[in-house]
Design brief:
206 residues, alpha/beta, five-stranded parallel β-sheet, three-stranded antiparallel β-sheet, 9 helices, 8 strands, binds adenosine monophosphate
């Protein structure tokens, strides 16, 4: 199964991808995570792209694609965060074919509400939010370290990311509808209900 998860920032793509990855035993590939790893490792590339991520801008297509290509399995994968525009779709098409595109749809209002309450642990990367608050406010359940807000989760940056989504990523919906591999999932629902919608669809096409 080659699956793409499409959706606005903070729509829950990462959470659903993690769940599906375990349920279906398929690798989860997140371009956001791959790029953040470059930054954490302080590589040359990481240094170049850090300001872009902090501002909510897209990393140039060719750079993201080359990082993705090195990490994309041949057969089964759940791709989260790529493609983000039609040019990236064309690049992806050259190396693989996709079975299903799940769009986790959410309103901007919901996204901004989630951004305000989203914090993560710098040490282990755990993410806390409305649906999963830490046991002790501001402290990671596992590492007991203070939680931080990812620079790209700052409300002003989230607004910029939503604008980028609207201009560049949104046109992919029509593209995939025409290819008849598009599936709408209502991302306003709680995590479990979103999971159910996606699993039901996957069961149908398997
Ligand atoms: P995400 O974790 O998917 O929300 O991605 C976080 C950030 O990584 C984005 O705001 C972009 O700066 C960058 N990024 C992730 N995927 C891509 C992509 N496909 N193309 C360009 N930039 C990306």
């Amino acid at each position: 199964m080659k699956l793409i998860l499409l959706g606005k920032p903070l729509s829950g793509k990462g959470t659903q991808a993690e769940f599906l990855s375990i349920k279906l035993n398929i690798k989860h590939v997140s371009t956001g995570e791959l790029l953040r790893t470059e930054i954490k490792r302080k590589t040359d590339l990481g240094g170049k792209i850090a300001p872009l991520l902090a501002k909510g801008k897209l990393v140039p297509d060719i750079i993201t694609f080359s990082v993705l290509k090195k990490n994309l399995p041949k057969k089964n994968f759940i791709l989260d965060g790529f493609p983000r525009n039609l040019k990236q779709e064309k690049l992806l098409e050259k190396i693989t074919n996709i079975d299903l595109v799940v769009d986790i749809a959410c309103s901007d209002r919901t996204i901004l509400k989630r951004a305000k309450s989203r914090f993560s642990c710098e040490k282990c990367g755990a993410i806390y939010g409305l649906n999963f608050p830490p046991k002790k406010k501001g402290i990671c359940n596992t590492c007991k370290k203070e939680l931080i807000r990812r620079p790209d989760d700052e409300p002003s940056t989230v607004k910029e990311r939503l604008e980028v989504y609207r201009k560049l990523t949104f046109p992919l919906i029509d593209f995939y509808k025409k290819k008849k591999i598009y599936f709408f999932a209502n991302g306003e629902k709680d995590v479990i209900k979103v999971q159910k919608q996606i699993i039901q669809k996957i069961e149908k096409i398997k």
